[in-house]
């Protein structure tokens, strides 16, 4: 698992050199992990976005909060 952590950290750091970013938050753990990593590399407030659906089968609003 340490190799995976290292790869995620390096990939995130490389992407942040390119431009200012925002993060899409879904109900999954992957978007939360990436958002957390981004916050480790910037003092700039991070803009996050999410999408909600009227159909509760597809809506991840509760998890993304």
- For the terminal residues, how far apart are their CA atoms? 27 Å
Q: How does the helix and strand content classify structurally?
A: mainly alpha
Mean pLDDT: 82
Number of strands: 2
The percentage of residues in β strands lies in 5-15%
| Broad shape | globular
> How can the largest sheet be summarized?
2 strands, parallel
Summarize the helix and strand pattern as letters: HEHEH
Radius of gyration, taken over Cα atoms and rounded to an integer in Å: 14 Å
Report helical residue fraction: 40-55%
The oligomerization state is single chain
Q: Unreliable runs, pLDDT <50, ≥5 residues?
A: none
User: What is the strand arrangement across the widest sheet?
Assistant: 1-2
Number of H/I helices: 3
What would a concise description of this structure say?
This protein is mainly alpha-helical and 65 residues long. The protein contains 3 helices and 2 strands, in the order αβαβα. Strand 1 (22-24), helix 2 and strand 2 form a beta-alpha-beta unit.
